Amino acid sequence: MVNSKESREMEGGKVLPQYMAAIIVNIAAFSSGSVVGWSSPMLPVLQSADSPLDGGPISNEMGSWLGSLMCLGGLVATPLYLFISDHYSRKCTGYLVAAPFVASWVLVITAESVAILCLARFIGGMGSGAIIVFASLYVSETAQDTVRGALGSYLTLFTNAGVLFAYILGSYVHYYTFAYIAMLLPVIYTLGMLWIPETPNYLVNREKYSEAERSLRWLRGKDERLVELELSKLIIFAKEQTEAVSLKDMLSAAGTRRALIIGVVLAANLQFCGIFAILSYTVNIFQAAGSDLSPNSATILIGSLQLAGSYASSLLIDKAGRKILLLISNICMALCLAALGTYFFVKHQGSDVSDFGWLPVGSLSVYIIAIALGVAPITFLMVSEIFEPRVKGRAIAIIISIMWLLTFLIGKFYTNLSDVLGIYGCYWMFSVCCVLGAIFTQVSVPETKNRSLESILLELSGGRKGQNLKSVQSEISVL
Hints:
The chain is an all-alpha fold and 479 residues long. It has 22 helices and no strands.
């Protein structure tokens, strides 16, 4: 037996390398955030008389394409990088994640026409799609159950940090200087990748057991008993999962079918919670409240709130649990969207709302924190937790592809929807979607906090929640 102090020290020694590996992997997510955030400070430059393009200022329509093409790039990259990860290792995939980011910034620097700039955004979107696939797989296959949630939430945390970085950087530096600085991020990420190991799951599936043991030693420290236990579990599990699974087989298996439904609904929940509408009208909301914040200051404030919510999520996700954070997130967003819809409806009717100028800004602030706290990070985390290894890659590709497609459709056609329903009608519709998301979470989403993969799969297949944990817990308790 060990005392509590020794236990904490041993646990710290085990998880620190996992935190370091997750941070290195998510430097690419930070780079993705800089690609996403680039459009906010740089679109006004491209639409001004000082546009760096030979054709002069670009139109609003072309500006919307610069955003939407990222989604199409992500849609193309998702199955491509899944194929690479399955056939050429996780680390090979990780190295190749950097390529689209570098290529995108090179094209931004050299672009003289809007067509080349559109290509740059498409390729940058490929990088964003690639890191979602890679980070989801890598972190889920290297993190212990006790820290899997926190490390899984880093994808959203680092992406939001990258977005805020882009907002701030774009407010102070020249168009070309921004691209040169952003291009350093994938270079730093690639250097970090040299240091971290291949995932033990991938190595075991390729029957490279000695390499898998070395990988586990790197990730878990010098606890030989824990390394031996985990390696034995991985080998046994891999031997039980040897058969290839077709899409038909995936849909016919009750547990996998339920997991797919959960993943797709969570992805739809993320897209139909109104984040595009909120971010598109951030400046309008501040103006409606009588604020004289500049557009750049408003976006920096929103980016800061996103980062704060993501950081809170990374601290709470392994303590409070996934399900409760999803419920709180959806309920808070529903209330904020309903309040915003009502405010703009009353204003549209010609009523004086000057005494309620605090309402839109307050609702916006709470909404941004709420989505970053729950729906945004947990969607990606949950998708990486609820599938058995032999179907995980394909399932993640299906769900993330659907997410990118929905993002593209909402981005391109939101203006048309707003013309039909009005901005207030859109907010109300998204509020209802959040309520439906909360109901689905309560009824169908399992709690995966601190649970082994075997336990999660058992529940999804209809087994009892704790049934498969007893033997594992008894083994770990002696360590």
